[in-house]
């Protein structure tokens, strides 16, 4: 129980820090969001109304407090006469806890507000529409990384200090050195343009695409191939190196020699004893890389035209759509924390010596 409470408190403190940093960071960016929302239809009267509606006429610190109020599950709901538009009760369902003359304390679902650029569309709706695509891409990439990285790491360890081992280490080093955006451009140009007649792959495309009549959305899995491979290159390199080093360390332990002395074959020793005990550092790497894929997919998604959360972040940066930016970053941070908690639990299964407390 103490461990759970400690993890939850750490999670809320981390999310609070993330909210604070990104809110002030994005609100000091050059440009006026109100002007960007109006575009060429801008006039002084409309500009004043937009600033009042979204609170742009308030000091940044007051805007920050209003945002925390919207985001917090327990928040203050002002009476109608003193309310800002984004604090009105029709924006979310709530349960009243305490009632006062000018305001009431309520329990509600966190409200991430509406997009500045997509009228009437909430940030939650945008995340719901884009995050599944990013999750599919990240899961596909990490699956490739796990299978290929562990295979290469085991194969390299079993062929220590020969040409196979050196070749795998060289490839791994190159994989870790090449940035994802460069790999994305290279793969898109090579396999989606030069060799398109052979591969049948497109330079750009998303998981769902409109049919020829522009009416129905169809799943196009071949568009997943290139971005998932590109996003998986660096974790493959990291996992293979960590698996190799960890397995070599385990193979030098006394209990491995004891297993051989009992008459077990090399395959049985590696399968039943060595590999499982080599997985702890690999699991640590996987947790970090899976969360990093959600954030690092920004460039890959944008280059391949993959309609995920990463591409939405880039589009929101171009239009200074602050609520979408903050909501997307918060989503990634929240998932990162959940993954780390899940990994802590997995440790206890892999290594009984590791205790939750």
Question: What is this entry, summarized?
Answer:
With about 350 residues, the chain is mainly alpha-helical. About 70% of the residues lie in helices and about 5% in strands. The protein folds into two domains: about 80 residues, no CATH class; about 230 residues, MetI-like (MetI-like fold, Orthogonal Bundle), CATH 1.10.3720.10.
Folded structure, characterized:
The protein has 357 residues and is mainly α. The chain folds into 2 domains: 33-108, no CATH class; 123-350, MetI-like (MetI-like fold, Orthogonal Bundle), CATH 1.10.3720. It has helices at residues 2-27, 33-38, 44-54, 60-71, 123-158, 163-177, 180-194, 196-199, 222-251, 254-261, 266-277, 279-304, 309-319, 322-350; strands at residues 74-78, 94-99, 103-108, 208-210, 217-219. Strands 1-3-2 form a 3-stranded antiparallel β-sheet. A two-stranded antiparallel sheet has the order 4-5. A hairpin with a 6-residue loop joins strand 4 (208-210) and strand 5. It is globular, with a radius of gyration of 25 Å. Mean pLDDT is 79; it is low at 81-90.
Features:
mainly alpha; MetI-like fold; three-stranded antiparallel sheet; 14 helices; 5 strands; globular
């Amino acid at each position: 129980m103490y461990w759970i409470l400690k993890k939850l408190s750490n999670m809320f403190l981390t999310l609070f820090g993330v909210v604070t940093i990104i809110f002030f960071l994005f609100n000091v960016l050059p440009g006026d969001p109100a002007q960007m929302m109006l575009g060429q239809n801008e006039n002084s009267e409309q500009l004043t109304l937009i600033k009042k509606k979204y609170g742009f006429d308030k000091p940044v610190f007051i805007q920050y407090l209003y945002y925390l109020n919207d985001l917090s599950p327990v928040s203050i709901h002002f009476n109608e006469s003193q309310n800002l538009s984004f604090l009105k009760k029709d924006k979310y369902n709530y349960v009243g806890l305490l009632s006062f003359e000018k305001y009431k304390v309520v329990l509600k679902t966190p409200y991430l507000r509406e997009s500045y650029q997509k009228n009437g569309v909430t940030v939650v709706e945008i995340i719901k529409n884009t995050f599944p695509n990013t999750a599919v891409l990240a899961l596909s990439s990490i699956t490739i990384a796990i299978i290929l990285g562990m295979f290469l790491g085991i194969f390299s360890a079993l062929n220590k200090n020969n040409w196979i081992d050196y070749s795998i280490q060289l490839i791994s080093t190159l994989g870790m050195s090449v940035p994802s955006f460069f790999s994305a451009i290279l793969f898109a140009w090579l396999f989606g343009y030069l060799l398109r007649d052979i591969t049948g792959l497109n330079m750009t495309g998303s998981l769902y695409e409109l049919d020829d009549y522009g009416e129905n959305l169809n799943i196009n899995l071949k568009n997943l191939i290139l971005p998932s491979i590109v996003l998986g290159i660096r974790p493959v390199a990291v996992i293979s190196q960590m698996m190799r080093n960890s397995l070599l360390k385990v193979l030098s332990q006394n209990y491995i020699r004891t297993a051989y002395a009992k008459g077990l074959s090399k395959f049985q020793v590696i399968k039943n004893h060595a590999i499982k005990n080599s997985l702890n550092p690999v699991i640590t790497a996987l947790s970090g890389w899976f969360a990093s894929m959600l954030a690092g997919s920004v460039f890959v998604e944008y280059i391949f035209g993959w309609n995920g959360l990463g591409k939405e972040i880039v589009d929101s940066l171009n239009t200074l759509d602050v609520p979408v930016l903050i909501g997307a970053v918060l989503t990634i941070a929240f998932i990162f924390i959940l993954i780390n908690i899940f990994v802590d639990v997995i440790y206890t299964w892999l290594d009984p010596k590791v205790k939750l407390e």
